[in-house]
């Protein structure tokens, strides 16, 4: 099977590499020439555990190619995945579909023989139909179907998630298209992965509904955390008790600074728009969006309060800039809001992140924060330390050594990664999430 994947971002590159690992011949297309050249040399554009290995191995085995030439790749393909970005449109809540529609236009003139175009990007309900209209308008003689196959991988564990997903969702209107989709995913189906077959609208909806539900679960426990702080309960214990209930489950019940990343914020916003446009407002999701925005702002206030009401002229060490560990992705990370606000309020911000520092600095600018190579250097001379991302090695920092490097002893642990007793024993004024103050 010959497959083209349009877009070599987190989803396109991982999907392309994994599909080649599963036996297909895959050509990954991107507009970015530099990215394509580097990929040919085995240089990864993103940090994703295990990715480099399968990219390099399959490229050397002749099963995975990279090009900027959409036409040549599409012409020889049985299936073409569209895996380009669908960011939030400028100043609006809905998804910017220009990359998807641009990719569809680029594919259309080059289709040869029956081809299935598969939307892998997260797209509003009705997009498969719209993509089909675009292709038909560009190339009325093309023999094709458009299907939907949303991607559920998580950054940081993307390769494992693609190869061992909880489910694969295949949305197609014709048996011919579904047969091609089944062939692509047969290696996974044979390992027992549940494969859900449905129409494209259902597949498109399943992706937004899943992400919105997970965002709601995070927001729920964050609000419970606020209440715990006021009532003497401990959110970590509450979450554990809740999670043991099989109807609830333990995942996504970790209180923190609010959800972020390249998916949940934009997907909840887009889902709310889809609801309103279809005359079926998603009140719950709308409330989740508002609560999460509010939370990110309030996290900064937490630091200010812990610093005695003002951060002006104070040095704040921010540990973690990515929206979660094991990724270099900082898109919509709560840390960006926190750093920018602290800077606006006159703080000197020092920040450390093992993978995302460069990307973060490109967003908030060189003036907003000084980037440090490691956590102890970041904390040196700081009046307060804020833990924003729960990178594994932050959990095992030597608090005694940390206490010796800081100037002030304030810690705001937004991920509850440190032991309160140990922090207090080392002289820290320790603030955490969802736990009553301890003295
Ligand atoms: P990304 O921004 O990392 O990558 C998109 C890539 O597409 C870029 O390299 C860009 O140069 C390329 N591109 C854009 N237009 C193109 C064109 N016409 N031809 C060739 N290349 C083109 O995006 P991403 O994070 O991989 O997300 C892609 C889609 O998958 C989005 O809809 C997203 O919501 C969805 N998704 C993302 C994740 C995730 O964790 N990142 C998970 C599941 C689903």
UniProtKB/TrEMBL annotation:
EC number: 1.1.1.22
Pathway: Nucleotide-sugar biosynthesis; UDP-alpha-D-glucuronate biosynthesis; UDP-alpha-D-glucuronate from UDP-alpha-D-glucose: step 1/1
Protein known as: UDP-glucose 6-dehydrogenase
Protein family per UniProt: Belongs to the UDP-glucose/GDP-mannose dehydrogenase family.
Pfam families found in the cross-reference section: UDPG_MGDP_dh, UDPG_MGDP_dh_C, UDPG_MGDP_dh_N
Keyword line: NAD, Oxidoreductase
Reactions that this protein is recorded to catalyse: UDP-alpha-D-glucose + 2 NAD(+) + H2O = UDP-alpha-D-glucuronate + 2 NADH + 3 H(+)
InterPro entries: 6-PGluconate_DH-like_C_sf, NAD(P)-bd_dom_sf, UDP-Glc/GDP-Man, UDP-Glc/GDP-Man_DH_C, UDP-Glc/GDP-Man_DH_C_sf, UDP-Glc/GDP-Man_DH_dimer, UDP-Glc/GDP-Man_DH_N, UDPglc_DH_bac
GO terms of molecular function: NAD binding; UDP-glucose 6-dehydrogenase activity
């Amino acid at each position: 099977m010959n497959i083209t994947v349009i877009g070599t971002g987190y989803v396109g590159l991982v999907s392309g590499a994994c599909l080649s690992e599963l036996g297909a011949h895959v050509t990954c297309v991107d507009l970015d020439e530099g990215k394509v050249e580097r990929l040919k040399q085995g240089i990864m554009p993103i940090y994703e555990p295990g990715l480099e290995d399968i990219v390099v191995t399959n490229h050397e085995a002749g099963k995975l190619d990279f090009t900027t030439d959409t036409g040549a790749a599409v012409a020889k393909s049985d299936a073409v995945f569209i895996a380009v970005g669908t960011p939030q449109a400028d100043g609006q809540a809905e998804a910017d579909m220009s990359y998807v529609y641009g990719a569809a236009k680029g594919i259309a003139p080059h289709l040869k023989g029956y081809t299935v175009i598969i939307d892998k990007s997260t797209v509003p309900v009705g997009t498969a139909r719209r993509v089909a209209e675009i292709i038909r308008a560009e190339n009325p003689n093309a023999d094709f179907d458009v299907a939907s196959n949303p991607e559920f991988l998580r950054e940081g564990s993307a390769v494992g998630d693609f190869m061992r997903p909880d489910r694969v969702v295949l949305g197609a209107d014709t048996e011919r298209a579904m047969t091609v989709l089944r062939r692509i995913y047969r290696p996974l189906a044979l390992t027992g992965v549940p494969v859900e077959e449905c129409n494209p609208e259902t597949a498109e909806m399943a992706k937004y509904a899943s992400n919105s539900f997970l965002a709601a679960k995070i927001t729920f426990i964050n609000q419970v955390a606020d209440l715990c702080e006021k009532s003497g309960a401990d959110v970590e214990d509450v979450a554990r008790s809740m999670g043991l209930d099989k109807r609830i489950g333990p995942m996504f019940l970790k209180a923190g600074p609010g959800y972020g990343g390249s998916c949940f914020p934009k997907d909840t916003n887009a889902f709310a728009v889809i609801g309103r446009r279809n005359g079926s407002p998603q009140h719950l999701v709308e409330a989740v969006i508002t609560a999460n925005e509010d939370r990110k702002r309030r996290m900064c206030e937490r630091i200010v309060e812990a610093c005695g009401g003002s951060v002006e002229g104070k040095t704040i060490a921010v540990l973690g800039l990515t929206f979660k560990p094991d990724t270099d992705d900082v898109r919509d990370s709560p840390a960006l809001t926190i750093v920018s606000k602290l800077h606006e309020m006159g703080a000197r911000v020092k920040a450390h992140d093992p993978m995302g520092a460069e990307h973060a600095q490109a967003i908030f600018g060189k003036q907003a924060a000084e980037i440090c190579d490691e956590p102890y250097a970041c904390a040196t001379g700081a009046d307060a330390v804020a833990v924003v991302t729960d990178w594994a090695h932050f959990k095992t920092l030597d608090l005694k050594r940390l206490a010796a490097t800081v100037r002030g002893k304030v810690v705001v642990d937004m991920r509850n990664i440190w032991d309160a007793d140990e922090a207090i024993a080392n002289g820290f004024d320790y603030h955490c999430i969802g736990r009553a103050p301890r003295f």
